Amino acid sequence: MSRFWSPLVQDLKPYVPGEQPRIEGLVKLNTNESPFGPSPRAMAAISAAADDNLRLYPDPQAVALRETLAAYHGVSPAQVFVGNGSDEVLAHAFAALLRHEAPLLFPDISYSFYPVYCRLFGIEHVTVPLNAGMAIELADYRQPAGAIILPNPNAPTGVALSRARIAALLGEHPDIPVVIDEAYVDFGADTAIPLIAKYDNLLVVRTFSKSRALAGLRVGYALGHPSLIQALTRVKDSFNSYPLGRPAQAGAIASVLDEGYFRETLAAITATRARMVEGLTALGFETLPSSANFVFTRHPNHSGAALAAALRERAILVRRWDAPRIGDWLRITVGTGEQTEKLLTALTETLNA
Ligand code: PMP
Q: Which tens digit of pLDDT belongs to each residue from 22-68?
């Protein structure tokens, strides 16, 4: 603390991202990055964008990228917002749409950035417990609310809601904004995008960081009714007019246009996830049904802390939280087939030790 800090800063509880250590041979399964590189076409577009034009500001409205995303998802460019990673898009959504008299609702076990934004923006919130099966129970959202935000699939559980369930939620809450954070949706959940034509209160937030293997480029986006997009744009233009540089805009466009590479890498990750769950089950782990590029798992006879420490000694990083209800669970990113075999071997040795 310093006497120069504003009261706001003194009161913040910043988000702590998963570590990014530089250890030789590390099997890094802690931050849900893709084990594959980005689309080669995206890399070529990023390199090509590193030219003399970098002296010029990028397009502040990222029109070409928004048009590409609109065409890909079958919406209009006025229904697309882009930002510097979906964390920034979410931050703008919290400021623009989620602060109301009544509290914001989100699951008790969910993306741990949500309460951080609430604190930053002074948003009252109520957390709604997941049910005994660690799933979102829509009936529990029938309570006074100013807005709702849910990841689908949820993080860190990986458990998804069907599109019909999301539609039911929207039908029950027609008069408040509902944000669905689809960071992991491409790995096997239903997208809510087709619902935006019917529900003007729905904002869908997405990222290039996971299924498009571009976490280092920082590109996220949101889709929704033009009036919701306008609200986000008003906040963005009150904060940073140029959130996406030229290489980011060019790389993101090329990634969207490379559908073949996208499908191929998704298929590899979902196949490895099945192998990982099978291996974990054989070792006695209980794993939640995952629609994401990670699994949430626990062992009945070993604490999460002990397992995470044992893996770390073998240069395998996974993520866990010292938090109520989930302290014994590990969130493990689905890596390559080879990384998965290393993980299963390390766990086998640990359990036999
Ligand atoms: N939403 C969820 C649920 C996430 O897990 C993450 C990644 N930490 C994000 C959003 C943000 O991802 P990014 O800012 O890289 O787009």
A: 888 899 999 999 999 999 999 999 999 999 999 999 999 999 999 99
Closest atom of ligand 1 to 86 CA is 16
- Say how many C-beta atoms besides its own lie within 10 A of residue 68's C-beta: 20
Q: Which fold has domain 2-37+260-352?
A: Aspartate Aminotransferase, domain 1 (3.90.1150)
- CA–chain centroid gap for 341, Å, is 25
The residue whose CB lies within 8 Å of the most ligand 1 atoms, and thus the one to mutate among 116, 209, 211, 293, is 209
CATH C-level class of 40-258:
alpha beta
**273-308 burial: b if 16+ Cβ within 10 Å, else e:** beebbebbeeeebebbbbbbbbbbbbbeebebeebb
Length of the chain: 353
Angle at 79 between CA 76 and CA 80, to 5 degrees: 100
Domain with CATH 3.40.640.10 in the chain: 40-258
Question: Residue 213: CB partners within 8 Å, gap ≥ 6?
Answer: 33, 34, 36, 37, 38, 39, 265
Q: Say if CB 107 and CB 154 are below 8 A apart.
A: yes
* CATH 3.90.1150.10-classified regions of the chain: 2-37+260-352
Q: Are 42 and 227 in contact (CB under 8 A)?
A: no
What does the block give as tokens for 53?
A: 């034009």
Q: How many CB atoms lie within 10 A of CB 76?
A: 13
Residues with CB under 6 A from ligand 1: 85-87, 111, 151, 155, 181, 183, 207, 209, 215, 220
Reply yes or no on whether the pLDDT at 124 is more than 80: yes
The tens digit of pLDDT for each residue in 182-203 reads 999 999 999 999 999 999 999 9
Task: Note the pTM of the prediction, 2 decimals.
Answer: 0.97
Q: What is the DSSP letter of 292?
A: S
33 CA from centroid of ligand 1 (Å): 10
Strand (E) positions, 129-184?
Answer: 147-151, 178-181
The answer to whether the beta carbons of residues 126 and 110 sit under 8 Å apart is: no
Asked if residues 316 and 29 have their Cβ atoms less than 8 Å apart, the reply is yes
Helix and strand totals (H; E) in the chain: 11, 12
